[in-house]
Write a structure and sequence with these properties.
heterotetramer, A: alpha/beta, seven-stranded mixed sheet, six-stranded mixed sheet, 37% helix, 20% strand, B: alpha/beta, eight-stranded mixed sheet, three-stranded antiparallel sheet, binds thiamine diphosphate, binds iron/sulfur cluster, binds magnesium ion
């Protein structure tokens, strides 16, 4: 046995590694992935992650349905996706191997927990023969480790019962993988000690398992497989590894802080949006009120009630919830009150694929209300961008007194990336003033408050209950501009319908112009929105590196569009729009700008990979 | 809180023309309210009426307070958000039997169980007025309406029973023919901390005229209205000769003389829900004696206050939110 | 006094008259209009009507808000609209005059009930001076009749109390107008006697009032104003005067008859859709079940449940109801069950203008669901067309096993036109077969039923509970094509999303090609959908009569489009789309066909008039 | 109706893998049902299970019958349509406490008041299982969950009370630890004509383990479960030493010896709703004796049957629909 220091020289340096941890839901793969991510982040790699859960809470152990996976891409330079085909697969049981093998790249390293490859498990996974023996893994680098038994063994010494010891086998895997890919041990050890504080046996078991994994690498002479990825050269600053739902929650809190109004969240649990409710409910000391309503309609209703009262009313949900909120959103449009409506999109239609990602709610966001009921729409493009977009949504809502739809998706919600923390001083300065004075005169010459008088942004005054002398009534029946009185006159309705449309279009005035990246003078422009940003950016990067000319533009504002979008589109011969739907933005662009935009569509519950995008863009441009 | 100025009915009346059918019971409810408000120690500025859609739901337009005429059935949900966000306000909810019990039934029962600080007025005319006369969830079985030419089949809700089943802390009933009683119920409901439901029997003279005539007209009241009064025996009749007794078979109407005065139930607003529920069951049709008054009034944690208390406790424990600290609350690392 | 026969010679013949009856809600104007309509129909005129109600049940008497109006266009030739500016206004009180005067044509005849023009009423209507005296009616032909007092007078003799007599004043108006415009008296008399059977005093009062109105014309020497409109030359057949909601209800019953399945309507009352519920609930002897649900979600849910059971499930509502049904419609899309969803559009957004017409729910019909949830859409173009479109909706639903959205609007719902009754034998023959046999094999080789196996229309089998041996489960989670088993596989989802899209597009195969009318070789094509048909047809007629070349095409199918639409659009230089919204079909056409379609938009709660369409088309084409 | 063939549990089990967490109470409910079905005289073909969304709502997939796994909260509405359209079918509705009482609360109470012929099973685990552990409308106040880190504030519904308040004709409670009792309740509910609600206390061992342990575990049952039996005195305890008495203060738990046997309430499923309601109120928390069994079972017009009767009556009166006559039912005229 040589010592570790010695071996280090043999470690091959690579630019990037993509590892996929896969096991039974009960195997703790999400945690393992998280730990590996943390260690990599602290080490200074750029990274992106993609957790994938089964739809069942706890599907029967050992079955394909129960497989839980976590993919992480670590790199020594700026990356934007969790990677195409993984270079490494950790399979804790046969089901995991079966479910994941076709996702990884040819020649990849496959690390298996051999203990789990016994008859019952093989059968449950639907393997007639043992894939470790029948040539299934030919062409892969196979690393076989009896993780369960080795973990039990090291745990025996410290007095942990075998059944409990078994639970630590994911730390064995983590130890082994960390050794193989040169992750520092310290952060994980610290974490274990904090997390399990007071449960000394658990701490000891996990530490021992981790070290056993480490040692297994050494003893099994796996040095040939060792790789290292250097820290990335990222802009200086303090970083944290963040997922979209957390970033979104914090963005809302930040916006509330900036605008000086308390948050009120009315929500009904639904995957993958629930974590925003969970996160916000932890921050009551920020004055955040969270209300778990009886359904989605009550959720948005309560948020609207809070907005009426001068709070920033928010409602969070996923597609099915938005489908239920349509009528209330129409009311919000008519009332012209600020309201933030957050849709963490998932696979549809109907219950669809609750735990998978998709971006097919854009049209519903745009049109899912009766009558002409326009609503601004913004979309986040990466986990950390959720923070910024949340602030932008609040800005639009309070400045223009309008409900705003914010679109994110399951991929952004749970995926993570390192995020350079903004300084609080640099956050956008938002502000709003409640009305405090009368602004009209009634027939008898008395000063009164008119709720639908408009300022230069065409926004009406926000006069909250409790304000001296501004008593007024608002409602969903058509009203007269200015006075806000119920008005059924034909001309008034026509006027109001157009006014509501125009006032939303007017928001474009405060949307910064879009910037085209890549080869501005290319023939082909790739237009994206939402979470496709990472894959598109990476694909465009690869194509350009290979000498192809491509331009890219990514939209945060879906309604109204940034003011220069039409002009940009006009400059390109070919406009290609990758979307995780059947072509929703594509249709909007075609209708508005009459450009022959073409969709590259993927609706499989999975994000695009950069590789497949390159191929499909090439197909379109050939 | 700002001092409450002296006001009169006129101060509480908005400048909007009242647009109910001539003769509608809604007028007398509105008048009762506008006359009552000056006596309640809240400013118009701190008062909000939230309603859904329906004839009844027009109510907020006529009150010179803050108000929202929202959408059908959702007023309890909207009001819940407002009351939670702004515990300083006095939030009233008004709606019809369709609005609150049909499309809005779920929001109502959840607001009741949560005990949100709302004063909820349910104008029960046993019909859909605004949509011109379909039967409602409180209409009697066999009702012939536009949508039920052969008679309706649905067994009606008893709003009092439903509210009690939904864990309401304050439940009362009154009717549009008795301004004093209405005002007393509104006043009591308003004073209650938490969700207070008042069912108001309201005559829709266009589509369901006289629905309550058999019990609310002056000369019928003695025999047909059982006026519940806390601490008093539950008795009624011209000579107070009838009363209510609790047995293993529930609440029974008896002749006091037959059973003896001491067997008569003494009304206790704070008693077990079962008794209030049994009382609510006495009015199963338009021809049987019907209890009015406060069925139940008990103290329980008010929702908005409890929510605010959690905010205060969180601040107490963790200090006021510090944004910079929040951003650094997950593991961080520095790149230089 | 000369006798009537004599005077008849003086009656001037005209091609058309447009009369508008207006009065207080309590004045019985709808009934008056109805009676005039019936008499005209029986007389053989072509006609079209437009009733307009106030939003209030009974707004305070005498106020502008309480004005109720009824417009009728009678003609000696085929017409398609209730007319542009009325030639005659009957104003029963000052409010009616004030509210309606600006709608009528210059020089029109204004018939007023002078008794109502007293101080209180003038004040309520907001008249400072009496418009009958201050020159307001200069330039109009004014006919002043003290209708109330004359009615009371003739009724006194027959023993009717003045208060009751007053109620008959609308029959006075009817008598007068019938005399002026040569309507036969008999049908009205018969109707009065039937309607009020058993209430002899009422019959006598109404008859007397009618005759008094008649006599008033004679005695007041109004002969100069007398006009007559000859019967129109309509195709031979039996006619009835029908409104859209009745036609729609009958169409559903007819479809049920043709397909041999019972109807189930789940509905929640809402203006202007409630009358379908009312109408269908009268026809229980046709096996029609109507269910007034607790809300719109339960309404569509119950209909879907009935469809699952093998009925034709229907749900009727207006915009706000559709906004609530979105989630359940997504389920219906996923379940692939027949379901008819009827939206009688009204002014929006939110509560909007409940009693006014609008056609701004097309985009919601198309996109108001989360995920990719395509649903066919058909729209009715005239009151009687509602009958045919209802049958077409049922055809598509049962043949393709899909929810279908049927769009009508407030104008069609309440407007009437003469309808040549179809022969039952000529109705489309519809048919459907329930599945009765197994169609798959499970892993163990047993015959089983697979609910998502497809026929040549890509429709899945409709196996209703109760069928021997075909037990199966369906649901809203993504399923495997064929077996219908829950399936989370990426490829399967992508496949199913595209399949659902394609199977709806495939419906185009059974949509008859569109026919262009007017000048097929014109430069300008007017594309319409829904209730604009009448106004467009009339406008195109007028333009062509004036020598301008215009082509017209009207869409019944909004999704998918008729197969030849793209080709048609490609033939014209200019595509103009009149819509009662801000351009919803326009956007769909632009996105799908990349043609520069331009909208002519009106969103005032009022239908287009032919005159204003002519002007706006000319503006666009100039 | 086709003859009902003899079947076994296996015949009622679908080929789909059961996907609840190991140890979940849903398993025992499924087994109870699959074992019971062969004893109920309905064919699998005529049996339909309709559910919403949630762990409980997976139930239909596992029954080899017709079934629909619909959307969250809407199963009572969908089932209402099916039961009305097809009175020949045997329609069951299954859902969790979130599905049926939170988002679906309104549909449930309306189905109950209408008395639609549905057998409704409410698996109450006092938690949202499928969305991984938020509190539900039946969770106790103060519950710490993902969405309520400082404890929940909402007073819970008592499903039995709510159902009684909603005019239910059949209401029962059982629990997942007693197969025999479950089967008895399912059988009774199924036999009831109209809407029958059975609340099943169900353990979610992942997110709310042991919620009912204090009352349902074998050695606790004697002291903690009050087994309601029609016609029998309401007594419990190891020696049947405790009982329930009705007084002007409601239902009281007493020592039988203290009050005398004749004061003990004799359970009557058909008695006034007030008594059943008072009984339901006995179980206000997890530590108090809890009644199980049939609280109420009364006859009332079944909705679908009544609807069908109207159709028959209309045909009787007007003859079967004649389309041609319908088209000519308004005034017509001929053009030649
Ligand atoms: C979503 C929606 N559905 C239906 C309607 C139509 N609608 C308006 S009021 C009403 C019911 C009115 O009855 P009720 O609530 O009892 O009030 P009332 O008019 O009797 O006072 C209905 C069905 C609507 N406005 N919105
Ligand atoms: C419209 C909609 N809102 C929210 C959800 C998410 N959701 C699924 S199940 C569920 C609640 C589950 O709780 P319960 O009904 O008690 O069933 P359990 O899982 O506990 O058996 C929720 C909120 C959804 N699927 N659809
Ligand atoms: S319809 Fe009935 S409830 Fe509505 S305003 Fe008229 S009388 Fe009142
Ligand atoms: S989460 Fe709870 S209710 Fe759901 S399957 Fe698991 S144990 Fe059962
Ligand atoms: Mg009502
Ligand atoms: Mg639950």
């Amino acid at each position: 046995m040589t010592d570790t220091a010695d071996r280090t020289d043999e470690i091959r340096e690579v630019e990037r590694i993509i590892i996929r941890f896969a096991g039974d839901s009960g195997d703790g793969m999400q945690l393992t992935g998280d730990r590996f991510t943390s260690a990599s982040a602290l080490f200074g790699n750029d990274l992106a992650t993609l957790p994938e859960f089964p739809a069942e809470i706890r599907a029967p152990a050992g079955t394909l349905a129960g497989v839980s996976a976590f993919q992480i891409h670590i790199s020594d330079h700026d990356i934007t996706t969790p990677g195409d085909a993984p270079n490494v697969l950790v399979a804790m049981n046969p089901a995991a191997l079966k479910a994941e093998l076709d996702k990884i790249e040819p020649g990849a390293t496959v690390i298996v927990n051999t203990d789990a490859f016994e008859e019952r498990n093989l059968a449950k996974a639907g393997y007639a023969d043992n894939p470790l023996e029948d040539g299934t893994l030919d062409g892969y680098t196979k690393i076989e480790a009896p993780m369960t038994s080795l973990t039990k063994e090291v745990c025996k010494d410290i007095g942990v019962k075998p059944r409990d010891a078994e639970r630590s086998k994911n730390f064995f895997a983590l130890g082994l993988v960390s050794w193989l890919y040169s992750r520092p041990e310290e952060p994980t050890m610290i974490w274990i000690r904090e997390k399990f504080k007071g449960r000394d046996l658990v701490i000891a078991a996990n530490e021992a398992a981790y070290r056993a994994g480490n040692a297994f690498g050494e003893t099994a002479e796996l040095s040939a497989s060792r790789l290292a990825v250097r820290p990335a050269k990222l802009p200086a600053g303090t970083y944290t590894n963040i997922n979209g739902n957390t970033a979104l929650s914090w963005g809302l809190i930040a916006a509330s802080h900036q605008v000086g109004l308390p948050l009120f969240l009315g929500s009904y649990p639904i995957t993958p949006a629930s974590d925003i409710l969970h996160e916000l409910s932890k921050h009551k000391n920020f004055g955040v009120r969270t209300f778990q309503a009886e359904d989605e309609i009550a959720a948005v209703g309560s948020a609207l009630g809070a907005s009426y009262g001068g709070h920033i009313g928010i409602t969070t949900t996923s597609g099915p919830g938005i489908a239920l909120k349509g009528e209330t959103l129409g009311l919000a449009v008519s009332l012209e009150l600020p309201l933030i409506v957050i849709d963490i999109q998932r696979g549809g239609p109907s219950t669809g694929l609750p735990t998978k990602t998709e971006a097919a709610d854009l049209m519903m966001a745009m049109y899912g209300r009766h009558g002409e009921a326009p609503m601004p729409i913004v979309a986040a493009s990466s986990p950390s961008d959720c923070f910024d977009v949340a602030i932008e949504a609040v800005r639009i809502a309070v400045q223009y007194r309008t409900p705003v739809m914010l679109l994110s998706d399951g991929y952004l919600a749970n995926g993570t990336e390192p995020w350079k923390l903004p300084s609080v001083d640099d956050l956008p300065r938002l502000s709003v003033e409640f009305a405090s004075e009368t602004n009209g005169m009634d027939d008898e010459g008395r000063e009164v408050f008119w709720p639908y008088v408009r300022n230069e942004d065409m926004a009406r005054p926000w006069a909250i209950p409790g304000t001296d002398g501004l008593m007024h009534r608002i409602g969903g029946i058509e009203k007269q501009d200015g006075t806000g009185n119920i008005n059924y006159a034909p001309e008034n309705h026509d006027f109001m319908v157009r006014l509501r449309d125009e006032r939303i279009r007017k928001i474009a005035e405060t949307i910064p112009p879009l910037e085209v990246t890549g080869d501005v003078d290319a023939d082909t422009l790739i237009v994206g929105w939402g979470s496709t940003w990472g894959a598109i950016t990476s694909a465009v990067g690869r194509m350009r590196a290979a000498g192809e000319k491509v331009a890219q533009v990514h939209l945060t504002h879906l309604h109204p569009f940034a003011p220069n979008l039409g002009q940009i589109l006009g400059q390109y011969e070919r406009v290609i729009v990758p979307e995780m739907n059947l072509g929703q933005l594509t249709a909007l662009l075609r209708a508005e700008f009459l450009v022959d935009a073409r969709v590259i569509s993927k609706v499989s519950g999975q994000p695009f990979t950069a590789g497949e995008l390159v191929a499909r863009i090439q197909e379109e441009t050939r | 809180m700002t001092a409450v100025p002296l006001t009169t009915k006129k101060d509480w009346s908005s400048d909007q023309e009242v647009r109910w059918c001539p003769g509608c019971g809604d007028y007398s409810i509105l008048t009762a309210m506008q006359l009552l408000m000056p006596e309640i120690d809240r400013r118009r500025e701190d008062t909000v009426f939230i309603s859904g859609i329906g004839c009844a739901a027009r109510f907020p337009y006529y009150m010179n307070t803050y108000g929202m005429h929202s959408i059908h059935g959702r007023s309890p949900a909207i009001a819940t958000g407002l009351a939670m966000a702004r515990p300083d306000l006095d939030v009233w909810v008004v709606g019809g039997d369709g609005d609150m019990l049909s499309i809005g039934g779920n929001h109502l029962i959840h607001a009741l169980r949560r005990n949100v600080n709302l004063t909820i007025l349910l104008f029960n005319n046993q019909i859909y007025g605004l949509t011109k006369g379909q039967y409602s969830p409180t209409s009697e079985v066999g009702k012939v309406t536009k949508s039920t030419p052969m008679g309706s089949l649905d067994h009606p809700f008893n709003p009092i029973s439903l509210a009690l089943g939904a864990e309401a802390t304050f439940v009362a009933r009154t009717h549009d023919m008795d301004r004093g009683h209405m005002q007393e119920m509104f006043r009591r409901a308003h004073a209650h901390k938490g969700a207070a439901l008042v069912e108001v029997y309201q005559n829709c003279n266009v589509f369901n005229d006289g629905a309550f005539g058999a019990i609310t007209k002056k000369d019928a009241r003695d025999a047909m209205l059982i006026d519940l009064k806390h601490g008093e025996p539950v008795r009624f009749g011209a000579e107070n000769e009838r009363g209510v007794m609790i047995t293993d078979d529930g609440a029974q109407i008896v002749n006091v003389a037959d059973v003896g005065e001491d067997k008569i139930l003494v009304h206790d607003e704070t008693a077990d829900r079962g008794i209030a529920f049994a009382l609510s069951g006495l009015a199963q049709d338009r021809e049987s004696p019907t209890p009015i008054g406060v069925f139940r009034a008990v103290d329980r944690q008010e929702y908005g206050e409890a929510a605010s208390a959690q905010l205060a406790a969180a601040q107490e424990a963790n200090g006021p939110g510090d944004l910079d600290m929040l951003l650094r609350s997950l593991p961080t690392w520095d790149v230089s």
